[in-house]
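Weekly puzzle thread! Below is a chain. First person to post its structure in C-alpha coordinate form gets bragging rights.
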Amino acid sequence: MASGAVNTARQVGAVMGTALLGSLLAGRVTADVPHQLAAHGIPAPARAPIEQAVASGTTSTTAPPGAVRAAIEDAFTSGVHTGLNVTAAVFLVAAVLALTAVHNRPHQSETHLPTLTTTSTTA
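Winning reply:
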Protein backbone atom coordinates (compact mmCIF):
# COMPACT_ATOMS: atom_id res chain seq x y z
CA MET A 1 0.00 0.00 0.00
CA ALA A 2 2.83 2.38 0.83
CA SER A 3 4.46 1.77 -2.53
CA GLY A 4 1.20 2.52 -4.32
CA ALA A 5 0.72 5.72 -2.33
CA VAL A 6 4.26 6.86 -3.11
CA ASN A 7 3.85 6.14 -6.82
CA THR A 8 0.49 7.91 -6.93
CA ALA A 9 1.90 10.97 -5.15
CA ARG A 10 4.90 11.02 -7.50
CA GLN A 11 2.71 10.84 -10.61
CA VAL A 12 0.24 13.47 -9.37
CA GLY A 13 3.14 15.74 -8.38
CA ALA A 14 4.76 15.40 -11.80
CA VAL A 15 1.51 16.16 -13.63
CA MET A 16 0.59 19.09 -11.38
CA GLY A 17 4.11 20.52 -11.47
CA THR A 18 4.26 20.39 -15.24
CA ALA A 19 0.81 21.92 -15.61
CA LEU A 20 1.49 24.73 -13.15
CA LEU A 21 4.89 25.57 -14.60
CA GLY A 22 3.44 25.46 -18.12
CA SER A 23 0.65 27.87 -17.24
CA LEU A 24 3.14 30.11 -15.42
CA LEU A 25 5.36 30.15 -18.51
CA ALA A 26 2.45 30.92 -20.85
CA GLY A 27 1.13 33.66 -18.60
CA ARG A 28 4.53 35.28 -18.22
CA VAL A 29 5.18 35.19 -21.99
CA THR A 30 1.78 36.69 -22.75
CA ALA A 31 2.27 39.43 -20.16
CA ASP A 32 5.83 40.26 -21.26
CA VAL A 33 5.29 40.33 -25.06
CA PRO A 34 3.87 43.90 -25.16
CA HIS A 35 6.85 45.27 -23.22
CA GLN A 36 9.34 43.38 -25.38
CA LEU A 37 7.69 44.51 -28.62
CA ALA A 38 7.91 48.12 -27.47
CA ALA A 39 11.52 47.65 -26.37
CA HIS A 40 12.46 46.23 -29.79
CA GLY A 41 10.88 49.18 -31.62
CA ILE A 42 7.86 47.48 -33.16
CA PRO A 43 5.31 50.16 -34.20
CA ALA A 44 2.19 50.35 -32.01
CA PRO A 45 -0.32 49.43 -34.78
CA ALA A 46 1.61 46.22 -35.54
CA ARG A 47 1.78 45.09 -31.90
CA ALA A 48 -1.87 44.07 -31.36
CA PRO A 49 -1.95 41.26 -33.97
CA ILE A 50 1.39 39.93 -32.73
CA GLU A 51 0.23 39.97 -29.11
CA GLN A 52 -2.99 38.20 -30.08
CA ALA A 53 -1.10 35.57 -32.09
CA VAL A 54 1.27 34.87 -29.18
CA ALA A 55 -1.61 34.72 -26.67
CA SER A 56 -3.61 32.29 -28.80
CA GLY A 57 -0.60 30.25 -29.91
CA THR A 58 -1.23 30.67 -33.63
CA THR A 59 1.65 30.40 -36.05
CA SER A 60 2.35 31.62 -39.52
CA THR A 61 3.91 29.91 -42.52
CA THR A 62 6.44 32.72 -42.81
CA ALA A 63 9.06 33.59 -40.22
CA PRO A 64 8.47 36.81 -38.31
CA PRO A 65 10.81 39.74 -38.93
CA GLY A 66 14.00 39.84 -36.85
CA ALA A 67 12.81 42.39 -34.28
CA VAL A 68 9.50 40.59 -33.69
CA ARG A 69 11.29 37.25 -33.36
CA ALA A 70 13.78 38.77 -30.90
CA ALA A 71 10.94 40.27 -28.83
CA ILE A 72 9.11 36.93 -28.66
CA GLU A 73 12.34 35.11 -27.78
CA ASP A 74 13.06 37.61 -24.99
CA ALA A 75 9.53 37.21 -23.61
CA PHE A 76 9.93 33.41 -23.71
CA THR A 77 13.30 33.67 -21.94
CA SER A 78 11.67 35.79 -19.25
CA GLY A 79 8.99 33.14 -18.79
CA VAL A 80 11.56 30.35 -18.51
CA HIS A 81 13.54 32.35 -15.94
CA THR A 82 10.40 32.88 -13.88
CA GLY A 83 9.63 29.15 -14.02
CA LEU A 84 13.17 28.27 -12.94
CA ASN A 85 13.01 30.74 -10.05
CA VAL A 86 9.73 29.22 -8.85
CA THR A 87 11.20 25.72 -9.16
CA ALA A 88 14.28 26.74 -7.16
CA ALA A 89 12.09 28.26 -4.44
CA VAL A 90 9.97 25.10 -4.22
CA PHE A 91 13.09 22.91 -3.99
CA LEU A 92 14.56 25.15 -1.29
CA VAL A 93 11.36 25.02 0.78
CA ALA A 94 11.18 21.23 0.33
CA ALA A 95 14.82 20.83 1.41
CA VAL A 96 14.32 22.95 4.53
CA LEU A 97 11.12 21.08 5.34
CA ALA A 98 12.84 17.71 4.90
CA LEU A 99 15.78 18.74 7.08
CA THR A 100 13.56 19.96 9.88
CA ALA A 101 10.82 17.33 9.70
CA VAL A 102 12.78 14.12 9.27
CA HIS A 103 13.83 12.81 12.67
CA ASN A 104 14.64 9.21 11.84
CA ARG A 105 18.37 9.39 11.40
CA PRO A 106 19.83 5.96 12.16
CA HIS A 107 23.42 7.20 12.10
CA GLN A 108 22.66 9.50 15.03
CA SER A 109 20.74 6.93 17.05
CA GLU A 110 22.10 5.58 20.31
CA THR A 111 20.62 2.14 19.65
CA HIS A 112 23.14 -0.55 18.94
CA LEU A 113 22.53 -4.00 17.60
CA PRO A 114 23.16 -6.78 20.11
CA THR A 115 26.42 -8.60 19.59
CA LEU A 116 26.34 -12.29 18.99
CA THR A 117 28.30 -14.41 21.42
CA THR A 118 29.53 -17.80 20.56
CA THR A 119 29.95 -20.51 23.11
CA SER A 120 32.20 -23.40 22.54
CA THR A 121 31.42 -26.78 23.91
CA THR A 122 34.16 -29.16 24.75
CA ALA A 123 33.66 -32.86 24.71
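Puzzle host: Confirmed. Bonus trivia for everyone else. The longest helix spans residues 2-39.
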